[in-house]
Structure formats: structure tokens, C-alpha cells
């Protein structure tokens, strides 16, 4: 039988019907785990950018959560769901306004938030409201262990830790590794974690090249830094950027003719960033907690249904939002009766292992995922470039 590419396979699974997969998954749970249906609705607040440079991630967050509801009769824990979405905007001020609006509307729980800096600024608001928030994009390490903030995605330094541990074993003795990152707290934390796990005193690690932190760099923004990078003689480059910044970095990197192999956290080539990079993204390696070609039953259900609904492969952000709905489903079910926000927060710690598209994971004590990390490479997948799974890197968390 001839081989078929991932997109063809997903279309084939989609033709069989996502509802069939959903029925099969439901039957594995057993009747004892079926939620008692209730007519009492629960209101869930979804914080996601609907405008600005992070709107692409916001769309993924909305799409992932809504897909779970579609596959589960618009219920969580047996209750009909009133999903209320608020525009996160582009900064901490607009994110707080969105959260305040959802709290005023009586949200039982919150989810979403694309901007990690904005998320950090929401700590006091969430803790003061005693309403749980399940974050579905990168989470600063400073928020680990916060009572009412959970993560269904990852701690921002985790992909750097996974890459550092991997590269220390594959970079040749005579090779040189340079790092490029923005000068904000997130960039510095990522570089520190990469250096720590690679070996801070390892002679193969050379200079770190810092750039200004910006979400929308112009077409010459990286050129001075790339000139320094060329002079350094690096064979491998670790780059920490996302969205438009990652796109511009790659385009300027290729136009300058640099040949060093790029390794980056998964957000570097996620979603439309990969499309915007085009052929110039080929060969880039990334570390991520998800790849759309993972071969497990939960991912076959999720990826085929997502592609059928949106005509594109799901991103890690869409997957994390889908899983946020899944853990809320379990937590609300465990509450029974008419759940309160405080009960849901307590039960989030008791949901156990999650059968996720990324593979099985669970919350650890700091309220972030204990999960596998994967090495991916941008390669042709059928007629397009995709983040193709290569191997497992590590289990972190």
C-alpha cells in the first residue's frame, strides 16, 4: 500500500467522522464516569486577543475551546455552557479589562490569555477574585504555584530546557552555539534555562546576542545583530522569538545568507508564522509539547475534527485550549450539584491524568503540566511545509 502524507491521512479520518471517534472515546470511560446532566448552566470566560498582533493566537484559543464543546454537546461536567469571550487586546491593561468584564458577568472559571506578560500582571486580580484561570499559552515561571492560576500549556522556559539538554549531546566538540533573544524577562529566562541545561561553562557556548523586545519588528530590525552573529562563527543558533518577530528574524536571517542551523522553542514556527515564513522556514528545528502528527487516539479525534472545521492543522495553542475545556469538564463533574469557583479550583487538583492529543499529562504541584516534549523539524508534508515530529526529547514538569 503506498504511503500517504499526514494531511491525506487526517482527511481520511475526518471522512470517517469525528463523532465516531468521540463515541469510541466515550465508551472507554465507562458508564460510572458519565456526568449527571443538569439544566443549570455554567458560565466560562475566555480571554483571547481579537485584535492586534496576537490575534492569530487568540483565534487558536477560541477555536480549540469551542471544538471541545462541539464534540461534547456544549456541556462541561453535565452542565450546559455559556461561553463568554472577551478581547485580551495587545497589552496588560486591555487584558485586565477583559478579565474584569468576565468576572463581573459571573464567570465560574476563566481560560485563555495569549500574552504571558499580561498574564503575569493578572495575578492579583485572579487571586483576589478566587476564580480559577487555566492559561493556554506560555506561562512565566513566576506564576508556578499560584493558588488560582493553572496552566494547560507549558512554562515558558520548558522548551529551552528541553533543547539545551538535547543539544549538549549532539553538538560537535569543535562547533559553536550562539543565542539570540529579546531583552525582556521572558527572553532572559529562556536563555538562562538553555545555558543551564546545555552547560553554562561549556566552551561550545559562545555569545548571547540581545535585541529589543518588540512584537512587530521592521524589515531591517535584526540586520545589525545578524552581522554580529555572522562574525561569531556560530554553527548552531538558538533563537527565542514568536509571531511576527520570528517571521522577520527568519526572513532577514535567510536574506543575509547565514547558514547556521536554527533551533528554537515551538512557538517560533507555530500557526500562521510558519505560513508567513514560507520556504525560508525549511530545516528549522523546534521543541514543543505537541505536533499535529502525533499518533494517538485523542489526537486523531482532535486533529481531524479541527482540520475539518477550520481547514488547517491545529497549533499547540489550540490544543492547550481544547485541553483546558477537558480539565474543566472533569473538575466541574467532580464538584457535583451547583459548582462554585472555589470548588472548581479545588477539583482541578484532582482531575488526574488527561488523555490529551499531546499524549498523557497531568498537573504537577505547581499547577503546570508534567508532560513530554518533542523535537520537530520544518519539512515538506505532502505539498506544504509542516512541523514534522522527529522524536521525544524529555518529560518535564
Automatic annotation (TrEMBL):
InterPro entries: BCAA_transport, Leu-bd, Peripla_BP_I, TAT_signal. The keyword Signal applies. Residues 41-383 form the Leucine-binding protein domain. Transmembrane segments: none annotated. The keyword S-adenosyl-L-methionine does not apply. Residues 1-26 form the signal peptide. Keywords: Signal. This is ABC transporter substrate-binding protein. It comes from Phytohabitans maris. The lineage of its organism: Bacteria, Bacillati, Actinomycetota, Actinomycetes, Micromonosporales.
Amino acid at each position: 500500500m503506498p504511503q500517504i502524507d499526514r494531511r491525506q491521512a487526517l482527511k481520511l479520518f475526518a471522512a470517517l467522522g469525528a463523532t465516531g471517534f468521540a463515541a469510541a472515546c466515550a465508551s472507554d470511560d465507562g458508564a460510572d464516569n458519565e456526568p449527571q446532566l443538569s439544566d443549570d448552566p455554567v458560565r466560562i470566560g475566555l480571554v483571547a486577543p481579537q485584535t492586534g498582533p496576537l490575534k492569530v493566537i487568540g483565534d487558536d484559543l477560541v477555536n480549540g475551546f469551542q471544538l471541545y464543546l462541539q464534540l461534547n454537546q456544549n456541556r462541561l461536567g453535565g452542565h450546559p455552557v455559556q461561553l463568554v469571550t472577551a478581547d485580551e487586546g495587545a497589552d496588560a491593561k486591555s487584558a485586565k479589562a477583559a478579565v474584569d468584564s468576565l468576572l463581573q458577568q459571573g464567570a465560574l472559571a476563566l481560560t485563555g490569555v495569549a500574552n504571558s506578560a499580561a498574564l503575569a500582571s493578572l495575578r492579583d486580580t485572579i487571586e483576589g477574585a478566587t476564580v480559577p484561570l487555566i492559561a493556554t499559552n506560555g506561562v512565566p515561571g513566576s506564576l508556578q504555584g499560584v493558588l488560582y492560576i493553572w496552566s494547560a500549556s507549558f512554562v515558558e522556559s520548558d522548551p529551552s530546557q528541553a533543547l539545551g539538554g538535547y543539544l549538549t549531546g549532539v553538538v560537535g566538540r569543535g562547533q559553536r552555539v550562539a543565542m539570540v533573544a529579546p531583552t525582556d524577562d521572558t527572553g532572559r529566562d529562556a536563555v538562562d534555562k538553555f545555558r543551564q541545561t546545555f552547560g553554562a561553562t561549556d566552551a561550545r557556548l559562545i555569545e548571547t546576542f540581545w535585541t529589543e523586545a518588540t512584537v512587530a519588528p521592521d524589515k531591517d530590525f535584526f540586520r545589525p545583530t545578524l552581522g554580529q552573529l555572522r562574525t561569531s562563527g556560530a554553527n548552531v543558533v538558538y533563537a527565542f522569538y514568536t509571531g511576527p518577530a520570528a517571521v522577520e528574524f527568519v526572513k532577514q536571517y535567510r536574506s543575509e545568507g547565514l547558514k547556521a542551523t536554527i533551533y528554537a522553542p515551538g512557538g517560533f514556527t507555530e500557526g500562521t508564522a510558519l505560513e508567513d515564513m514560507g520556504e525560508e522556514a525549511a530545516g528549522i528545528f523546534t521543541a514543543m509539547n505537541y505536533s499535529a502528527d502525533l499518533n494517538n487516539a485523542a489526537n486523531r479525534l482532535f486533529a481531524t475534527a479541527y482540520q475539518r472545521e477550520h481547514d488547517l492543522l491545529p497549533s499547540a495553542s489550540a490544543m492547550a485550549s481544547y485541553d483546558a475545556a477537558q480539565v474543566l469538564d472533569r473538575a466541574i463533574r467532580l464538584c457535583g450539584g451547583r459548582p462554585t469557583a472555589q470548588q472548581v479550583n479545588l477539583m482541578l487538583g484532582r482531575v488526574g491524568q488527561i488523555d490529551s492529543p499531546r499524549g498523557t499529562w497531568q498537573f504537577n504541584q505547581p499547577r503546570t503540566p508534567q508532560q513530554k516534549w518533542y523535537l520537530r523539524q520544518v519539512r515538506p508534508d505532502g505539498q506544504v511545509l509542516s512541523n514534522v515530529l522527529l522524536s521525544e526529547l524529555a518529560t518535564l514538569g
